[in-house]
Amino acid sequence: MASSSRILFSSATLLVTLLPFGAARAQILLDGEWSPQFHEDQPERIPGPELVDYLGLPINDAARQRAESWDASRLTLPEEQCRVHVAPYIYRGPLDLRIWQEKDPETQQVIAIKNYISTWSQFRTIWMDGRPHPPDYAPHTWMGFSTGKWEGDVLTVATTHLKTGWVRRNGVVMSDQATMTEHFIRHGDYLTHVTILKDPAYLTEPLIKTEDFLLNLHASDASWVYHCRSAEEIANRPKDQIPNYLPGENPFLREFANRHGVPENAALGGPETMYPEYRSNMRQSARPVSRDRVLPRPVPPAEIAVQKVQGNVYLLVGDGANLLVQTGEQGVLLVDSGTEEVSAKMLAAVRKLSERPIRWILNTGPDADHVGGNLAVANILGSSRHIALVNTPFSTAVNNVEIVASDAVLARMSAADGTRPMYPVEAWPTETFVGNKDEVFFDGEAIEMWHAPAAHTDGDSLVFFRRSDVIATGDLFDTDQYPVIDVTRGGSLQGIINGLNHVIDLAIPEFEEEGGTMVVPGHGRICDEIDVVEYRDMLTIIRDRLLAMIHKGMTLQQIQAARPTLDYDPLYGATSGAWTTDQFVEAAYRSLMRDGKPTASR
Description:
By secondary structure, the chain is an alpha+beta fold. Helices cover 23% and strands 24% of the residues.
């Protein structure tokens, strides 16, 4: 018996010796309830930062201009009131933090480390099971998508897919291109949280911050719940009125510097202001911003990729516009059909989702990357244009494809205009509408098409799946670039703003301005309401700047040289390609001049 014990002991010793050091010892436990300590950066974290205090932040000129245009009154907008602090910022405020592990019930291996943050009642998951981060076109969230690994006793976390949020909550923002690395370090009853934020759009170098927490053995559950409901704080405010300051007109630009005797150059921030040696110089920091997007547009997958949005609606991502597929017992419905060149791949991807026939195509606009596949779909079962009785119950009772669009789309597709040839008749819409709205009921779901007049073109439509709670915006919305305004085909900047406000009216977030109605842009990633709000705000602010410049008598060339889009160019700008920033500014300018010269509302 003693001999057997020695054998078992020796085997166990050998196993421990052979195991990697990290696996051989238990990782430190972070579980518990933690309360923040505010001895570090207390003025910023509790009363809140003062206006135009950007001291110590490595921001560029775009970030500074965006911050200076920010008006705190914007938080009175219903869609802004429940905005959540993003993961890189939320730990800095007053909160209670609960940490626990989620384990596989069979193996007891840690799947994830969970955080519950009392501010805005946010749940955060740090995946520990080695799963990859989502693709570029997946939704972004307040807490982002996080994966973790142990480095000794330090939990290191990598986070992507973050929404736009604060770097400092006085107007300095991080973009949705930002990523974060974190370190959770426990020393007995103290927990240190280190964040390293990188944002190619607005930060010139990584921003490092730390916070400390103390283990709390007497937490009150009453302080752990925060539910926000928005309200109409200012009655009868026009939907396209977004509080903002024009460049140079922020009345608080010098308030912080004057109150504390800080040189104005220092108060305006920049990477130099992060370091002690800046005291001996204190020159104003200037970090010029390229006219180009800081990161290239995401490369489309080689094959058509399929991503479930929610309900019965799926996104097809490929070389062209975003397409939506609704599936059910009655068959398949498409929102747009993509380019002619990828129609075979598109049809193959649809067949993987459903073997049932495609019965409907709803076109959001007349562009080739939205209607180019109409012909290939129509050729499978035939178009109802080959049936004598059209727009009657008979036409939908036989095996054919119905193509629905606003009347202007038919007008564009059925005529050559010198640059675009006429489409084959089978690709034309079989049913059109001339009012504000059309309706389809298919696969057990009500679907609304809403006309967006004079937006990208004069033929744009939104498509709203009411049961699945998904909106397709077409080219009103593009997370990768400024919207294309086709002035020659009836497009206008104001029409796009109006269309985006309609999307915001239709969308309802699930909780704290996140989730709920999902919004799929014509190009780019899956979004929700607050992402549309960011885009709408950007376009409205640019409109207000253009109108102010027009009223000053500035020419188009002078306006373009003044760069009214400076603070948004890192996200949407381009100096080459099919749609440049100068083209956008010119189209916006010409549409505003054509529509009259309305007074900017700020």
